[in-house]
Amino acid sequence: ERRAVEEAIQIYPEAVIATPGGLVSDAATFNLLLAHCTTVWLQADPEDHMKRVIAQGDMRPMADSKEAMDDLKVILAGRAAFYSKAEFRLDTSAQPIEPTFASLRRMVRDALNIQG
Question: What angle do CA 9, 11, 14 make, to 5 degrees?
């Protein structure tokens, strides 16, 4: 992951880099993002995380665990301190996708002082 992030930053100075949630557990890679990128924590309720993964056809979270939701809550709580280091936070569970995207777009445009 670190090599991919380094390469993306080097080759594409103006790009959106969507990273996996677990990236924060690698301090060096996460610090690289924090140092070189405008970062946004797209926060969601655990229930929404689970629904979105299942909607994509990925049943792994439920595969062998009746405690999948409890496990997810523990994982998200454990990562929250790291995620909170992002410059911005957007709760994606607070509203439907269209207004959420509009909020994200406005947030990033304002942060980067992009007109239009």
Answer: 65
